[in-house]
Design a protein that fits this description.
The chain has 984 residues and is mainly beta. The protein contains 16 helices and 50 strands. Helices cover 10% and strands 44% of the residues. The strands form 10 sheets. The chain has a 22-stranded antiparallel barrel. A 5-stranded mixed beta sheet has the order 3-6-7-4-5. The chain is globular.
């Protein structure tokens, strides 16, 4: 997809992702299952266990927490968990940030290792993916009102649930045995009167057969309004939209002067919404002296202040502002979610269960306009003559550069339909053993509609206008000369989507001026491009779990066990529109159909060994182990395992730890994606702006690469693509899958302590350390990363340089190829901590105080063996410290909660950039400011059946940092909401 501005999109206006991180005001209610007594079934084990036996650092977000957070979008609450702070949603999947086919999705990213390494479960079972070729689950498909709790588990998941959970598991546990009627609703809006959200839900359930059966039906509706970047001054008003760019007063470079400083009113130099028109065609094409003479409206062109080495930017003038250019901050989203939950117990030995789900999700976003770059209009173009006759020499024709807001801003609409069915039966074999057999089928069908995309041959035919000598009317040249190639100066190829001639339908299109186009011409030129996708998942599973108590017991109790087998098959297909498949669009490279499938057969076993219990200095001592053997049709056999242990010398203190190995098999897209064309931004690492921001090898490698092309020393000394507008647009390249991929492997250990001091009832505190090493990781570098990695290695003899091509005349990058490889490694470590304290007073009510937080010790990425370590710790969304604290008070029917969400400063620039260039900017811009968000929630129970509530998130309206659209806080600003719940 052809998009504008590498530097701006990636470095100036925003961090690479949104930060809709609303505070969760009731994290005193975020609990660990170990806080609960009795026997429970927990995420991360198939064995029934006592609370003290839980070795995994499992954190649960309760249904009450989700309700009181005030967020219609569940992900905004879950991102308060330290492990999920880097999850995707909001601006990341809206506007120009949205990837093809993924508008409006909400994806969980555990530990910052990527959504592809986060396994999402519902009731302990896999959920069908929402995006073709992946295992990524859109959280929009989860019914909010049916959630009983959300369990977040780090490490040890692959041995229990299979591949994909190398960073951990997020399990949504849904309510069971719902008896009665529950209706709830909520509306919310920003304090600026936009970004509205609405929610409504009705659930009806009934027990029958004297309580042996239950059936519940639920309908839920969620809506989120589209929010344009023009709706916020910091992103839509040129005078209040800032970027941090090259300092024009710092040439030559002075180490005492910042290289980059904030500028407002930034614009794309020499490109205008009504056209930047250059009549010196020969000078431009032959000598590169391309300077607009007039706007498309006929005004003498004001270039503003040209900003050298800034990626083709200017300040002020007639050029197109960056403000508002990147499209929406928030996609429109409408979700209809229907769920059926049922079970019937014939006896203790046979219990049938059945679940069904249907979700319809419609999303829409506007991205950015198409643009013309040095489009040539011939001297006989009547629009050119009519506009400039008598004020300019049109004998050479003209070159027009414009941003086509008036031709229809490109958009994308995604309609996703998800169905999921789970059926099976379970029961007791003996008093010490149970069985379960189940079958799960899931399917997601998607319609991906690209709106207002130009059909290439039609567009070039329409702008090649001439005057019909017979009628005097302005017509398309192809109408008068149907045998010739279309627009030889710009396109020069036969028509493919229409038949030239009098009946071809071509209508002339005027590019000179804003809003002067003919709607009939626009309707003929633009197309809505329809693509379809289908993802299917089949899972057949059987297991037995229980204990060996009928044979013997250890001092701590009987040994628990689970064993079973599973068969899983996944299929994915993406079918592209014929216009897209044939490369007929002017702004989108040809995309071929993608399809693939795999299956896996697995056997698994798990043990829980309670050695000691209720003994001096051994209130509890236990360990566990799990093993899974898998055989994939794509990568062959894999083995995953886990060992863990818990030791509580006294009831007040328990220590826990795990050690595990997990795997992730490559997904369908990584394996089977066809070789497709693409367009991407590349800020040339050999440009003077960036050459000091890499490794110690970059400068020498750049010199060698440019010399090898045949550039002279003088050309190399003058090499500066960032100062050439022709080099700062998207560049063509290719991408594809890799059928030789193998599994990636993660080793994880965790260690923690849980405190429940008997002298202070109601207080629970925990601290857990985690360490994850991921080797042989599958990594698909971006075109930008490939270009950087090429020159940042010890020599040019590496796989990355083979995938970057340069123009031998200019040295500019002119092509790229990316595909996934098993070359990367990741390392992350840190700590999670929480403290909950609840106490009741005689007259003042019940108080709950909570704190949940995280410490990030390490987050490193090595793109290939021997490469320089990329330190991501302290970059956006990876703060060193983060915490959410709250205090909740309940008195009779009134509940009030006040919460604060915070994380520490993060870097605007990478460690590598600052190490190579200490004067990159003023030090006060090295880091983004801290996040401080205050939330309040108030609820009143009119009676036992009716509750009314209202609240505000981001109460004090904290704003994003300078030169950022949505970081460290959301673009929404202060958000107000109110709602009600009825239970009968």
């Amino acid at each position: 997809m052809l998009h504008r501005s590498a530097v701006v999109a990636r470095r100036l206006l925003a961090a690479s992702a949104p930060c809709a991180l609303f505070a969760c005001p009731v994290l005193a209610q975020v609990s660990d299952p170990a806080d609960q007594g009795g026997t429970i079934v927990v995420t991360g084990s198939r064995i029934q266990q006592f609370g003290y036996n839980l070795a995994n650092p499992l954190v649960t977000v309760s249904a009450e927490t989700l309700e009181q957070a005030g967020n219609v979008q569940i992900i905004d609450t879950l991102r308060q968990n330290p492990a999920l702070i880097a999850s995707f949603g909001g601006a990341q999947t809206s506007g120009s940030n949205a990837n093809f086919g993924s508008v409006g999705v909400q994806l969980l990213n555990l530990r910052g290792l990527g959504e592809q390494r986060t396994l999402v479960l519902v009731n302990g079972r896999r959920h069908v993916a929402s995006l073709a070729g992946t295992a990524a689950v859109d959280i929009n498909t989860i019914p909010t009102d049916l959630i009983e709790g959300v369990d977040v588990l780090t490490g040890g998941a692959s041995a229990i649930y299979g591949a994909d959970g190398v960073s951990g598991v997020v399990n949504f546990r849904l309510k069971r045995d719902f008896d009665g009627l529950l209706a709830s609703g909520q509306i919310g809006i920003s304090s600026r009167g936009d970004a509205g959200q609405r929610y409504g839900s009705v659930t009806f359930g009934r027990n029958f057969a004297e309580g042996r059966g239950n059936i519940a039906l639920s309908y839920e509706y969620r809506a989120q309004d589209r929010l344009s970047s023009f709706a916020r001054e910091r992103t839509g008003n040129p005078l209040k939209t800032f970027g941090i760019v090259r300092n024009p007063a710092d040439f030559p470079d002075d180490p005492a002067v910042p290289d980059r400083i904030p500028f407002n009113d930034l614009r794309y130099a020499d490109s205008s919404v009504d056209g930047a028109v250059d009549f010196d065609v020969v000078d431009c094409l032959d000598d590169g002296l391309c300077v607009p003479d007039y706007t498309g409206s006929g005004k003498v062109y004001d270039r503003g202040l040209l900003l050298r080495s800034s990626g083709g930017l200017a300040q002020g003038g007639d050029s197109t502002p960056l403000a508002g250019y990147q499209g929406d901050l928030q996609a429109a989203n409408r979700v209809h979610n229907i769920n059926l939950l049922s079970h019937y117990d014939v006896s203790d030995a046979i219990k049938f269960f059945f679940e069904a789900k249907y979700v319809k999700n419609r999303t829409f976003t506007l991205s950015q306009p198409s643009f013309d770059f040095f489009t040539y209009l011939s001297p006989d173009n009547p629009y050119l003559q009519d506009r400039y006759a008598g004020i300019a020499d049109t004998s050479q024709g003209a070159l027009v550069t414009r941003d086509n807001f008036d031709l229809g801003v490109r958009g994308e609409r995604n309609d996703r339909e998800t169905m999921r069915f789970v059926g099976g039966f379970e029961g007791a074999i003996t008093d010490h053993a149970r069985y379960e057999l189940s079958y799960t089928y899931g399917q997601t069908k998607s319609k991906v509609l690209l709106t207002d995309y130009r059909i290439g041959d039609r567009y070039w035919a329409a702008i090649d206008a001439v005057r019909d000598p017979a009628s005097g009317q302005i017509v398309c040249r192809s109408t008068l000369d149907p045998a010739a190639n279309i627009n030889p100066d710009n396109y020069d190829a036969p028509a493919t989507s229409f038949t030239p001639g009098a009946g071809g339908g071509c209508r002339p299109l005027n590019l000179l001026g804003n809003g002067v186009r003919d709607q009939a011409a626009l309707d003929w030129v633009n197309a809505d491009v329809r693509n379809r996708a289908k993802v299917q998942k089949h899972v057949l599973s059987g297991s037995i779990n229980g204990d060996l108590g009928q044979f013997f017991a250890l001092p701590g109790g009987p040994i628990g066990f689970a064993l079973g087998a599973e068969y899983r098959k996944e299929k994915s297909a993406f079918r592209t529109d014929p216009l897209l498949k044939t490369g007929a669009l002017a702004d989108f490279s040809a995309q071929q159909d993608e399809s693939g499938s795999f299956d896996v057969k697995e056997a698994f076993a798990e043990l829980s060994v309670p050695l000691l219990k209720d003994m001096p200095f051994a209130h509890n001592l236990s360990f566990g182990a799990a093993l899974r053997l898998s055989d994939y049709s794509t990568i062959g056999k894999t083995t995953t395992w886990k060992v863990d242990g818990v030791y509580a010398p006294i009831p007040d203190v328990s220590f826990r730890g795990t050690w595990s190995e997990a795997v992730r098999a490559p997904n369908i897209t990584e394996l089977f994606a066809p070789r497709n064309g693409g367009l991407d931004f590349i800020g040339d690492p050999c440009d003077p702006v960036y050459i000091t921001e890499g490794t110690q090898y970059r400068a020498a490698n750049c010199q060698a690469a440019l010399s090898a092309l045949g550039l002279s020393p003088a050309q190399i000394a003058a090499f500066n693509p960032e100062n050439d507008p022709t080099a700062t647009v998207t560049l063509p390249g290719n991408s594809g899958g890799n059928r030789d991929l193998q599994e990636e492997t993660a080793r994880t250990w965790t260690a923690g302590v849980v405190l429940r001091p008997g002298f202070l009832p109601g207080l629970v505190a925990s601290f857990d350390w985690y360490d994850i090493k991921l080797k042989n990781a599958i990594n698909t570098a971006t075109a930008e990363e490939v270009a950087e990695l090429c020159v940042d290695q010890p020599s040019l003899d590496n796989v990355f340089c083979a995938n970057i091509s340069r123009d031998p005349a200019t040295g500019y990058i002119n092509g790229w190829f990316v595909q996934p490889q098993n070359v990367a490694s990741f390392r992350t470590s840190g700590a999670d901590f929480k403290l909950n304290y609840r106490f009741d007073t005689a007259k003042a009510g019940i108080f709950s105080i909570g704190l949940v937080g995280g410490y990030l010790n390490k987050l490193e990425f090595i793109p290939t063996p021997g490469a320089t370590v990329d330190v991501d710790r302290l970059e956006a969304y990876y703060p060193k410290w983060n915490a959410t604290g709250d205090i909740s008070w309940t008195l009779d029917r009134l509940t009030v909660n006040y919460g604060v969400s915070w994380f520490s400063k993060t870097r605007r620039y990478t460690t590598e950039e600052l190490a190579a260039n200490p004067d990159l900017s003023d030090p006060k811009y090295f880091r983004y400011k801290e996040k401080w968000q205050h939330d309040v929630y108030v609820a009143y129970d009119v009676d036992k059946r009716f509750r009314f509530f209202l609240g505000a998130n981001n109460l004090f309206d904290q704003q994003p940092a300078i030169a950022s659209a949505d970081y460290p806080v959301s673009y929404v600003g202060r958000y107000l909401y109110a709602g009600a719940k009825i239970t009968m």
